Amino acid sequence: MRPQVVSVTGVGTSQPIILDNYISPFNIGFGAVITGSPTYKIEHTFDNVLTNSSPTWFPHPTVVNATVNQDGNYAFPVFAIRINITAVSTSGTVQLTAIQAGVA
Predict the structure, then answer these.
(1) Domain ranges of the chain
(2) Backbone region of residue 12 per phi and psi (left: phi > 0; alpha: psi in -120 to 50; beta: other values)
(3) For each of the chain's 104 residues, which pLDDT tens digit applies?
(4) pTM over 0.85, yes/no
(5) Which CATH architecture has domain 4-100?
(6) Cα 11 to chain center, whole Å?
(7) How far apart, in whole angstroms, are the C-alpha atoms of residue 69 and residue 91?
């Protein structure tokens, strides 16, 4: 797929990036770039965010309580990923870019 980009400023969550969980291999690479001083995590859900108004979100295993630029991946299917900024000391933005292999 072409890179998908979302961002969030201040405490809160971004819009989800919906992924194609039928692609095999699944393989998602992502990078989170910050400005300011946010504390954030990348989260994923197995729920269909298009039909479920209260999906359950799980933290990525290594991008939790991050305060610097981070990258990571998902090797196994999830429905969507998002940014969750949990704290900001003065100001802060996180921009998340995700690329899924196998989709043009």
Answers:
(1) 4-100
(2) left
(3) 689 999 999 999 999 999 998 888 899 999 999 999 999 999 999 999 999 999 999 999 999 999 999 999 999 999 999 999 999 988 899 999 999 987 55
(4) yes
(5) Sandwich (2.60)
(6) 15
(7) 15
